[in-house]
Specification:
Layout lengths: L20 H32 L2 H29 L8 H14 L5 H16 L25 E7 L4 H8 L11 H16 L15 E7 L3 E3 L2 E10 L4 E11 L2 E8 L2 H7 L8 E2 L4 H11 L5 H7 L3 H19 L4 E2 L8 E5 L5 E6 L15 H13 L10 E9 L5 H10 L4 E4 L2 E11 L2 E2 H7 L2 H20 L2 E3 L7 E3 L5 E3 L5 E3 L4 E2 L22 E2 L4 H5 L4 H10 L6 H12 L27
Helix pairs in contact: 1-2, 1-3, 1-4, 2-4, 3-4, 5-6, 8-9, 9-10, 14-16
């Protein structure tokens, strides 16, 4: 194993007990190595869970991967602080610890992760300021293609892909469980890709005009999440452009089979969206992997690609570096976000930024309608919960920073004043800096009402349909937004709809589903549910609550999603969740799925 391997040498011994900087540095590094190697074992376990059709294990692995880092950081920081209570009084000793640590991790592939780890430990001990880190500080640099590391396998291209090539591609994961019919799948996938190359598939999933493939480059690893597995690659086209090639696999009682083929950026964006759970990928080379994904989805910030494959802490640094570069490049400043001003959060962004940032107000505005406010921490807990669950493709993920310093001149004066006045418990001025106790960062979306104001009719109808799917997917994840106001939803450039405000979220299984439709017209008596504790939900009020202005769009919503207005739909879904069932959620359109047809002569079409 070469010395660039992410697991070269294994966990290092902590060495002899001692109080010196080098001994403490070795202790931190030993904990990092144990944490990192535990995390790296999870993709292999996820592959096995897919082969065994153990969906519960797959979900457990996703939760475990998210918790490993935090558990290690908190346990180590507590142990260090308990052993040396005076350590937090001065940072001089810690600087010597960091110098020793940096020498130990120099040249290691995962030096940036290791550097982020010791900084997280430091923040826990000192409760100090988190500042954005450059990759160079971790010793690995901001390189995307490390020397000597190739993560993809290359296959021949040409005017058309052959089933023989697809047979090899389908063998990449090396499954212990057999395909139901690997030959049939190879023919069908080749046919689907070739039709896309000829421009015969429906937009936007045609590759474009008739094109020749110079080579097919597939990541030499499997991607695993929930019930599914994916093979991910790209078509290297003449002229230097890339097109995605993503093959979605499922596994039932008869074996593994190809469910769908994705050849367009929009579909790739959807399955790699941070609105879904992270992928487990059976390659340790995360920098090259993020760069490869960026090549087929260039409009998505590279920091989000890191997060998609489970390297949330690398992604966290990359997103902050993205924000800094955006402001330096554009000479813009943060200003209040477009759309409705939130009652609980102050949302802001730079005009051309890919991100929206949020801070929770000390107290809600007068428009707050949920009774007593439980406090800032209770809202942050809801944002953390969304990060840790399967977001079903319908909720934006959150990156939450703590004790973050940002330059005060990055902020519009009116925004700066509102932050200090209305969120003074979480934002303070320190000379040329604004110091944030917490800061939430999400991908930027167009607020639904803002989008509908100017959208072409066809796009508006598509978005209204997707709004209903978003509500259904959230409920399937046991998430209920008791504030079904359309202003809490956003629209992506691919016309997908996402929930982005989480202060009104409740577990759907805790909701009390009631109705007024069984009441006699003119009945004046107060309904019995009025006196019940907890969150009461009347399905017949969904349409009104969404505040869709256009009568035609409201009519279209009812036509497509009439079930959302019925007690039966919601009660049935709640019963399934209470019974331990996991409702299925589609992450790609039905038209991307393979249609299996074969005539008696064995000709596939």
């Amino acid at each position: 194993m070469n010395d660039r391997s992410p697991i070269a040498g294994g966990a290092r011994p902590a060495g002899a007990d001692g109080d010196g900087p080098a001994a403490l540095a070795r202790r931190v590094l030993a904990e990092f190595d144990a944490c990192y190697q535990q995390s790296r074992r999870i993709p292999g376990l996820a592959k096995q869970a897919f082969e065994d059709r153990d969906h519960a294990q797959s979900l457990d692995l996703s939760r475990r991967r998210l918790s490993i880092y935090g558990e290690s950081i908190h346990a180590l920081a507590r142990a260090i602080a308990a052993r040396d209570p005076g350590l937090a009084a001065t940072q001089d000793q810690w600087r010597r610890v960091e110098e020793a640590y940096l020498a130990m991790i120099e040249g290691r592939y995962e030096a940036d992760l290791a550097y982020a780890f010791i900084n997280s430990v430091q923040n826990q001990i000192y409760q100090g300021a988190w500042r954005p880190l450059d990759y160079a500080a971790g010793g690995n640099g901001w390189t995307r293609d490390g020397p000597g590391v190739t993560i993809h396998r290359e296959f021949p291209g040409g005017a058309a892909l052959t089933p023989a090539t697809l047979l090899e591609i389908l063998s990449i994961p090396g499954f212990a469980r057999a395909y139901q019919d690997q030959v049939e799948d190879a023919y069908l996938v080749a046919d689907r890709v070739n039709r896309a190359l000829r421009g015969e598939t429906a937009a936007p999933c045609t590759v474009g005009t008739v094109q020749t493939v110079r080579a097919v480059q597939m990541i030499d690893a499997g991607f695993y999440r929930n019930r599914g597995a994916y093979l991910v690659g790209r078509l290297a086209l003449d002229g230097g452009a890339f097109a995605p090639l993503v093959i979605a696999l499922l596994n039932d009682e008869n074996g593994i089979y190809v469910d769908a083929v994705l050849t367009c950026e929009a579909d790739s964006h959807n399955i790699f969206s941070s609105t879904l759970a992270n992928f487990h990928v059976t390659t340790p080379y995360y920098h090259e992997l993020a760069a490869f994904l960026h090549s087929i989805m260039p409009n998505r910030p590279v920091g989000l690609h890191y997060s998609t494959i489970g390297y949330n802490h690398v992604g966290k640094v990359a997103v902050m570096n993205d924000l800094r570069r955006e402001l330096d490049r554009s000479d813009e400043r943060f200003e209040l976000a477009v759309g409705f001003r939130g009652t609980v959060a102050i949302a802001f962004s730079a005009p051309s930024s890919a991100y929206t940032l949020k801070v929770i107000r000390d107290t809600p505005t007068k428009q707050y309608k949920w009774g007593a406010f439980a406090g800032v921490e209770s809202v942050l807990d809801k944002y953390r919960r969304v990060h840790e669950i399967n977001r079903t493709g319908s909720m934006l993920d959150n990156i939450i920073y703590y004790n973050l310093w940002l330059r005060a001149d990055w902020f519009d004066e009116a925004l700066r004043e509102e932050l200090l006045e209305d969120a003074g418990g979480s934002v303070a001025r320190d000379g040329e800096w604004l110091v944030f106790k917490h800061l939430i960062v999400q991908s930027k979306m167009i607020p639904l009402p803002v989008f509908l104001e100017a959208a072409p009719d066809d796009d508006a109808r598509t978005v209204i349909e997707n709004l209903g799917h978003c509500i259904k997917n959230n409920a399937a994840a046991n998430i209920f937004n008791k504030d079904l106001d359309g202003r809490n939803y956003g629209v992506s450039k691919h016309l997908k709809v996402y929930l982005f405000d989480y202060d009104a979220l409740e577990p759907f299984t805790d909701i009390k589903i009631r109705t007024n439709q069984d009441r006699v017209e003119g009945e004046e008596e107060v309904p019995a549910w009025f006196f019940e504790d907890g969150v009461i939900f009347l399905p017949e009020e969904v349409e009104v609550g969404l505040r869709i202005v256009s009568r035609d769009l409201r009519r279209h919503f009812r036509a497509i999603h009439a079930d959302l207005l019925t007690v039966d739909y919601w009660q049935s879904l709640q019963d399934d969740l209470l019974g331990g069932k996991v409702p299925s959620v589609s992450v790609y359109p039905d038209e991307r799925k393979l249609v299996r047809q074969i005539d008696r002569l064995g000709t596939y079409y």
